[in-house]
Amino acid sequence: MSSSISKRLIVVAAAAALVIGAQAAQAQTAPLSAQESDPNVMGWMQGFPPPADKMITQPDSDYFSFPKLRWSVCHLREFLPTEEISRGLGAPAPLSYPSPAEFAELSAQIDALTFTPINGDAEMTWEESLFANYTDGMLILHEGQVVYERYFGCLEEDGKHAIMSMTKSITGLLGEILVAEGVLDDTLLVRDVIPEIGDSAFASATVREVMDMTTGVQYSEDYSDPNADIWVYSRAASPLPKPEGYDGPDGYWEYLQQVEPEGEHGDAFHYKTINSDMLGWMISRVTGKAVTELASERLWRPMGAEQDAYQTVDGKGVPFAGGGVTAGLRDLGRLGQLMLNGGEINGQRLFSAQVVETIAAGGDPSKFAGFPTIPNGSYTSQWWVFHNEHGAYAARGVHGQTIYVDPTAEMVLVRLASFPRAQNGFIDPTSLPAYQAVAEFLMGR
Amino acid sequence: MSSSISKRLIVVAAAAALVIGAQAAQAQTAPLSAQESDPNVMGWMQGFPPPADKMITQPDSDYFSFPKLRWSVCHLREFLPTEEISRGLGAPAPLSYPSPAEFAELSAQIDALTFTPINGDAEMTWEESLFANYTDGMLILHEGQVVYERYFGCLEEDGKHAIMSMTKSITGLLGEILVAEGVLDDTLLVRDVIPEIGDSAFASATVREVMDMTTGVQYSEDYSDPNADIWVYSRAASPLPKPEGYDGPDGYWEYLQQVEPEGEHGDAFHYKTINSDMLGWMISRVTGKAVTELASERLWRPMGAEQDAYQTVDGKGVPFAGGGVTAGLRDLGRLGQLMLNGGEINGQRLFSAQVVETIAAGGDPSKFAGFPTIPNGSYTSQWWVFHNEHGAYAARGVHGQTIYVDPTAEMVLVRLASFPRAQNGFIDPTSLPAYQAVAEFLMGR
Questions:
Q1: Which are the catalytic amino acids of A?
Q2: A298 and A428: one domain?
Q3: What is the CA A167 to chain-centroid distance, rounded?
Q4: Least CB-CB distance to A241: which of B5, B82, B317?
Q5: How many Å apart are CA B300 and CA B297, to the nearest integer?
Q6: Is B76 buried (19+), middle (13-18) or exposed (0-12) by CB count in 10 A?
Q7: Distance (Å, whole) CA A340 – CA A321
Q8: Does A86 contact chain B (CB < 8 Å)?
Q9: Does B315 touch chain A (CB under 8 A)?
Q10: Confidence check on the interface: ipTM exceeds 0.90, yes or no
């Protein structure tokens, strides 16, 4: 096997998308601004064909490095095999908007809001924060009505954007729905659900520990270490032909069967993507359905989505339950509204209120550490719970993706972004206080 | 470069999909029947994970060989990178149906129709022909109303199916629309539209010759010859990393730049897929849009499609204009109805009536040969014209795909299929007379 092919294999792996950006960002010290790196300004993939230096191709360029990722986050299906999350065939359920005049006034008021970043930097306006955060799409719903909606960079209202690890929250929501319905018993051990998990460290964890990521499993994401587990996972997950002589795991699920233990199950929260794929496997086993099909049946169709979503797959057609979804901004707003409404949308109950109650209640913050911008948080059913005064919780994905639900303010906020660095710890300082400022503004309307 | 990697590269190439089936079919002498090879009966990809012998994966299995192709025709995006042909965000334009009672009666009447196959085999009923032809979906519209609709095998009403070379007819329709609007001058030489076509044999052909496939270009599809052009094209088109040491063309368009001459332009019709991709390139050059975007803007959105379609792409993101589209059955019915109505649908004119008139008039049958089941045919703007008493014309794709438009009977018929052999010459004997029988029945209603 040539090292060139091997390197390329890694580059195209679905799981690697999450990683490459972080790597590239580490190499960047003064990245281009949001305006400078706007993919339309950069001219990526414009022309038939584009000039060679404006081409973003797979595999010979690193398509998920900044600033190319600002284009690629809207185009993942053009690089990778995918499965559809169907909206069905009917008419979408329209979102509610104020009058155009009222909408314009609200937008202007929100743009002018000011807040102080967490890190103590100078006060900033809401609108400035959009650029500071390399925002591609921002949607805010208040009391079920869209009060703010803007598109930047590669995203348009009829486009879609990679949601990265927010995928986990969809997987977790599906899992929690199945738990509430008695289809998935969260007190079982993984080996009771998936007997062929064998000697994997997952075998002796409970379903609940997998859902809450408190398993004791080895999975390193040190990108500077060529032997880190993330690379092995990427190679396993790649839909490309395995190189000759490759004898590692083939696909997400084979990887999960050979995970080594690290620490004790239940002791502490460790953010490790393999838990999400373990949960995805258990969901498929107990329902007989791919997570894509289940997300369509339980969420996308009944909530009246206006676009299909899609999910990348490994070489065996298994959707990447830990990070593979791409979706439209307003459909993610529908999903957030469904959460805020405790499982109801468009006058229809899609799942028990207990599902959202469990997620919003959060877990034990004493088991949660390592996220300085979320000092009192917890992680439950693949959702981030802030344990703040507003009882907010969120789906979060690298490079700035979020669905932020504030039950006190009756606010749902969706941001899609292509921040140069992967970790949300870099983006939270100019995001979380901004969300709080909008929430307070909306509560005072 | 290892021969194993090389072989796998070929297998996964988008263009090769069209080819592999034919190869495999040649090796098969008594294929399974439609009922026996039903993918649900075969059990392909059922279970999480499926048993190893029921797995259809890329690249290690030949996913487009019969009987696997009966599953794969509904799942191409799970193997290959694709681009969306968006339906937009609005409500679909519903198709018109008779009352359920009338619909059931019509279906029964059509199922019982009999006809004599072209090859002189024994008389057959319409319903028998569905199985003889490995039909996955059949939709018949009469006077704008759906009078027959059935799904088999891998296809359901909210699913999609590869349309293979019917893709060419979408490309050709877009080209003809641009000609009618004066955006594409069909009297120009290719080199006047695409200067960088260079010394390619295409350079001196006219746009019209490309549209009608009367160019004199070398392109062999002898599957038994490992040096046949189809394999070079497949390697160029593959979205997989090019193997080390590969020095052939990269992508559809680089291939087109090095095509050798064979015969004279304008002399005769030769069915060669590279013409469709040459046309696709010219369309993108004069419009500044990918064929996917143009198909969305000019067809899928305004005709009120109920599903997005999609199109496979090469490693540079160029859609396969000669065969890459996958779409829903009813949306193809809308497309056929749009043709039958001379460019109008849902009370809206999408393009000049001249467009359909040009296509339906057909070309010079004296230049057309080599298709025994279409003895007096011609090929115009990538549509097959039968020059029969009903003035019928059709989009056609390997393994049995067709949109068959019969203006005299005011009938549109769409068949999606996964016939074991690629060439429609094997399927026409039990198809074309069946279509004529339905047309006559509908005219007598």
A1: 165
A2: yes
A3: 4
A4: B5
A5: 7
A6: buried
A7: 23
A8: yes
A9: yes
A10: yes
**What is the per-residue pLDDT for B224?**
78
Query: How deeply is B118 buried, as exposed, middle or buried, from its count of CB atoms within 10 A (0-12, 13-18, 19+)?
Result: middle
Contacts of B177 by beta carbon, 8 Å cutoff, 6+ apart: B298, B351, B352, B355
Which residue in B86, B288, B315 is closest to A58 by CB distance? B315
Mutate one of A2, A44, A83, A84 to test the B interface: name it (highest B CB count within 10 A). A84
Instruction: Supply the residues of B annotated as catalytic.
Output: 165
Q: Give how many domains chain A has, as a whole number.
A: 3
Give me Rg for the CA atoms of chain B: 21
Contact of B82 with chain A, judged by CB distance below 8 Å, is answered with yes
Residues B303 and B439 in one domain: yes
- Residue B92 within a domain: no
pLDDT interval class at A59 (50, 70, 90): low
- Pinpoint the alpha helices (H) of B89-198: 100-112, 126-132, 166-180, 190-193
Same domain, B314 and B434: yes
In 10 A of CB A215, how many CB atoms?
31
| A308, A362: one domain | yes
Residues 6 or more apart whose CB falls under 8 angstroms from that of A435 comprise A392, A404, A406, A413
Please give the residue range of the domain that contains residue A415: 100-169+290-443
Q: In this predicted structure, what is the pLDDT of residue A106? A: 98
Token duo for residue B396: 């056609």
Is the domain of B308 the same as that of B434? yes
Long-range contacts, stretch A194-201, CB < 8 angstroms, 24+ apart: A194/A281, A194/A282, A194/A285, A196/A257, A197/A256, A197/A257, A198/A257, A200/A256, A200/A257, A200/A258, A200/A259, A201/A259, A201/A260, A201/A261, A201/A262
What pTM, to 2 d.p., does this model score? 0.94
Q: What's the rounded Cα separation, in Å, for the pair A80 and A323?
A: 13
Contact A329, A161 (CB under 8 A): yes
Mark whether A435 and A297 lie in a shared domain.
Answer: yes
B196 touches chain A (CB under 8 A): no
| B residues 202..261 contacting A (CB < 8 A) | 239-241, 243-244, 251, 253
Chain A nearest C-alpha distance from B422 (Å): 24
Confidence of residue A89 (pLDDT cuts 50, 70, 90): very high
pLDDT tens-place string over residues B381-417: 999 999 999 999 999 999 999 999 999 999 999 999 9
State the DSSP string of B213-276. T---B-----TT-TT-HHHHHHHHH--SPPPTT--S--SHHHHHTTPPB-S-TTS-----THHH
What residues have CB less than 8 Å from A375, skipping those under 6 apart? none
Domain with A257 in it: what CATH number? Answer: 1.20.58.710
**Which site among B63, B82, B84 would you substitute to test the A interface, given the most A Cβ atoms closer than 10 Å to its Cβ?**
B84
The shortest C-alpha distance from B223 to chain A (Å) reads 23
Q: Which of A80, A253, A306 sits opposite B81 (nearest CB)?
A: A80
Q: Does B157 touch chain A (CB under 8 A)?
A: yes
- Confidence band (pLDDT; 50, 70, 90) for A29? low
Answer whether residue B17 shows pLDDT above 50: no
Q: Does A357 touch chain B (CB under 8 A)?
A: no
A196 touches chain B (CB under 8 A): no
The Cα A74–Cα A180 span in angstroms is: 34
The answer to whether B77 contacts A84, with C-beta atoms less than 8 Å apart, is yes
Please tell me whether residues A73 and A108 are part of one structural domain: no
Buried b / exposed e along A89-123 (16+ C-beta atoms within 10 A)? eeebbebeeeeeeebeebbebbeebebebeeeeee
Residues of A in contact with B48 (CB under 8 A): 281, 284-285, 288, 290
Do A107 and A138 fall into the same domain?
A: yes
Percent helix, strand, coil in chain B, to 5, is 35, 15, 50
For residue A412, what are the β-bridge partners? A141, A405
